[in-house]
Amino acid sequence: MIEPRLDHLVYAAPDLDALVAGFTARTGVAPAPGGKHVGRGTRNHLVGLGGAAYLELIGPDDPAATPLPDVFGIDRLAAPRLAAWVVRPTDLDATVRHARAQGYDPGDIVPLSRRTPDGHLLEWRLTPNQGDRFDGLAPALIDWQDAKHPTAGGLPELRLVALAGRHPDPPAVQRALAALGVTLDVTAGPPALEAVLDTPRGPITIS
């Protein structure tokens, strides 16, 4: 089962242009430019996953920058990685309070923004990419506030067939997921988040 409140998946790499080119060649679908993240040193491209969910391909705005941004561990990556998934709860603040009461802290909520290619500023709130996320298996939480959702403008689209994770301690991950009120199939193994996509060139797996 795919979490119904899934907002987006984060596919990160140290070179965004190379990631986009490789993804396009592999799937037959070219991700649309998303824009630059204000003050974070990153930019992204987007692909719809059906409904109000999408795949974010993210990397440094300048791949030659030193150091690379630490967003989603980009500064430590040698190859693309499905680094995170993001859920859109009905009430972000209440979800954070409930998770903390259950013993899992998803982090403080921070304001973020992105400048789109046409110059429009999108602003939202997000629990940060910090703390114990169990190697990306515990999701970030997002509130788009009054911003137009990225899928509302029309994106090139693929279909998300499956989303699952592996971790050396699945029960610990499941406790965090339960505190957040979300679901993800997690099996034992080296840490990884794995998504299966249906593409014009057949199903592919990214992790």
UniProtKB/TrEMBL annotation:
A Pfam entry, by short name: Glyoxalase_3
All copies of domain VOC, residue ranges: 5-139
Domain of life: Bacteria
Protein name stated in the entry: Glyoxalase-like protein
Originating organism: Pseudonocardia hierapolitana
Top-level taxonomy: Bacteria, Bacillati, Actinomycetota, Actinomycetes, Pseudonocardiales
